Amino acid sequence: MGTSPDSIDNLLHESRRFSPPPEFVENAVATAELYERAAADRLGFWAEQARELHWHTPFSDDRVLDWSNPPFARWFDDGEINVAYNCLDRHVEAGRGDRVALHWEGEPGDSRSLTYAELTAEVKKAANLLAGLGVGQGDRVAIYLPLIPEAVIAMLAVARLGAVHSVVFGGFSAESLRARIDDADAKLVITADGGYRKGKVSPLKPAVDAALALPDADGATGTHTVERVLVVKRGENEIDWTPGRDLWWHEEIATVDAEHIAQAFPAESPLFILYTSGTTGKPKGILHTSGGYLTQAAYTHRTLFDLHPETDVYWSTADVGWITGHSYVVYGPLANGATEVIYEGTPESPHPGRWWEIVEKYKVTILYAAPTAIRTFMKLGRQIPQRFDLSSLRLLGSVGEPINPEAWVWYRDVIGDGITPIVDTWWQTETGAIMISALPGVTILKPGSAQVPVPGISVDVVDEQGVSVGADQGGLLVVTEPWPSMARGIWGDPDRFIDTYWSRFGPTVYFAGDGARRDKDGDIWLLGRVDDVMNVSGHRLSTAEIESSLVANPMVAEAAVVGASDETTGQAVVAFVIIKQSHLEAASAEDAIPQLRKHVADQIGPIARPRDIYLVTELPKTRSGKIMRRLLRDVAEGREVGDTTTLADTTVMQVIATTVR
Ligand code: 6R9
Questions:
Q1: Per UniProt, where does ATP bind (predicted)?
Q2: Burial class of residue 588, CB neighbours in 10 A (0-12, 13-18, 19+)
Q3: What is the best residue among 426, 479, 533, 547 to mutate for testing ligand 1's pocket, by most ligand atoms within 8 Å of CB?
Q4: Which end of the chain has fewer surrounding CB within 10 Å, N or C?
Q5: What is the pLDDT of residue 3?
């Protein structure tokens, strides 16, 4: 089956354009000149970005990139660096120790702010604590924590020692946690008794106990690699204790030395492993290293979020269990000396205005969130954010999925007061940092399009043969030149790394797995994962385009589209739609469904008209906000629903399955 969505013209007829406000342009960090510099001397440009960091041992000009053994790149490889030093001590030594690094907000409303000096002191102690437990260069540490300051402290302490962290989402099951511990041979697990989610304490330590009690692949118990479990007290929930193995963080940290000198590590030292939940098969442990990763995380954070660290208050709503939490909660912002907000809980706890209350409280200026959250707020209605003072916001970001033009415009109008630029940032766990995004203050924005590669990055949209497609054509997104924050492999499985990403179009072309279209201006529109592309009577349709069309209808808050097998058309379009609160009474299901089918046919073409539309109240999503279309496809095809363990709310599928049957 073909995979590129290339057959229907004008699928996206979005013509709205937004220029940056003049005051924004005047003070913008990014300038159009960045493109020229990067194009004139790509490696020189990246070396310049890398030199914004502190190098214990500078790298040589002729060692910027070693690409002699693709796809295993080496960047700045004779340089030595300490990632945590760059995020902490450097700012304190430069006299910025009194600046707030973290404003942490707990879900129940407790809060704690740490300056750079305080955060540095905490990380030094934590590094001594971990070193005392035998953690050293190259050792793997699993982190299974809620979003509390200790999550950031633990990650930086591991990095400071040249060890490797593997952060596992607090929402993952004991089985998933154990699989990740085993794959990485972690010797230490850092967890909490529990954390707050949706107004309740959600236990974590019991899942660690259960994970470590599970039999290994050969059926044997007690064979795991974990020597110690370090437990942060947060939820105050009852937990079991294994003496000799389990240790309280607060007790141990009280006994260690406060001073710790950061050592230099080679630029290519592993920094972290992060597992991506593939649709099938064993999760992939994506490996990132130090110097190149930090270079691109910091550079993109500074330029794409227009960071003015003295005055901005930045908030990325991502959890640290997601790549966005690594690059744009921990490493990018802290390397840049930003003041940022981190929030433990869910957007609706204890009330649906919680996020906007936090924006008002901390006078957040830059907000980075996922389209799924934006659509949820659209569903609830603009009167909720309008109750809060959001006038501090001056830049908005989006990540995780294509943002439908309607959601984009709503975000700008309602949250951004009709003036803030929006950066729609495309990237992946594997790319480590943002790859495609508008430059705020430079690019004229198009709602729904991620637009242009970041200066220094080279991407293309190609057909099945790897040939660049023309204007207004769809195809597959590829990255054609190596980049500093690229994954260095899949942990323990170099062949799978090559097979998955570097074999389809040759050993130096990165296949991202996303469909994309380039419009007449050369701007890139992401069309969703290639496996989300449908083939209806030989026409290739993208789930993202039909979803955007549905969301553009005033009745619709959210939509998920899947291709279900169909005897006559090969696949048929099946849509799951959430109707906005304000339209629920007005529209009866009998009226809404035919209207929406017609709407899609009118907007895109009769071929895209959904065969079935189901009205639902929730969609199945992962904790990073991605709709799990695989599960909806199971429902649409009348199958038993598959593995739901990575869903944020595992009950959603039962509700949907009942609605449909
Ligand atoms: C950062 C992150 C990667 C996949 C990626 C793509 C989708 C992310 C997007 C986007 C369209 C954007 N994606 N950002 N699609 N526009 N701005 O999400 O990493 O969890 O590894 O997911 O997410 O499909 O391939 P990760």
A1: 400-402, 424-429, 514, 529, 540
A2: exposed
A3: 426
A4: C
A5: 31
Please report whether residue 591 resides in a domain. Answer: yes
> What is the per-residue pLDDT across 181-225, written as a single tens digit (0 to 9) for each?
999 999 999 999 999 998 999 999 999 999 999 998 788 988 999
Tell me whether residue 622 is in a domain: yes
Domain total for the chain? 1
| Across 295-316, average pLDDT | 98
**Within a domain: 565:** yes
Pocket of ligand 1 (CB under 6 A): 276, 323-324, 398-402, 424-429, 450, 512-514, 526, 529, 624
Distance of CA 14 to the CA centre of its chain: 26
Confidence bin at 538 (pLDDT 50/70/90): low
Domain that holds residue 615: 526-660
Q: Give 143's strand partners.
A: 167, 190
Amino acid at 253: I
Residues written for the chain: 661
What does the alpha-carbon distance between residue 450 and residue 448 come to, in Å, rounded to a whole number? Answer: 7
Query: Tell me, what's the pLDDT at 605?
Result: 77
**CATH code: domain of residue 639:** 3.30.300.30
Position 1 scores a pLDDT of: 28
Binding site as annotated, residues: 197-200, 324, 400-402, 424-429, 514, 529, 537, 540, 551, 556
Cα 402 to averaged position of ligand 1 atoms, centre (Å): 8
Best mutation site among 396, 435, 514 for ligand 1 pocket (most ligand atoms within 8 Å of CB): 514
Helices (H), 363-458: 371-380, 405-410
Q: Which residues are annotated as a binding site for ATP?
A: 400-402, 424-429, 514, 529, 540
ipTM over 0.85: yes
**Is there a contact between 115 and 287 (Cβ–Cβ < 8 Å)?**
no
Contact indicator for 178, 214 with CB cutoff of 8 Å? yes
Alpha carbon distance 498, 430 (integer Å): 12
pLDDT digits (tens, 9 = 90+) for 73-127: 999 999 999 999 999 999 999 999 999 999 999 999 999 999 999 999 999 999 9
So what's the pLDDT on residue 68? 98
185 three-state secondary structure: coil
Of ligand 1's atoms, which has the minimum distance to the CA of residue 276? 21
pLDDT at 8: 36
Amino acid identity at 467: V
Average pLDDT over residues 253-279: 92
316 neighbors 621 (Cβ within 8 angstroms): no
In a domain, 301, yes or no: no
Which among 398, 393, 344 is positioned nearest to 368, based on CA atoms?
398
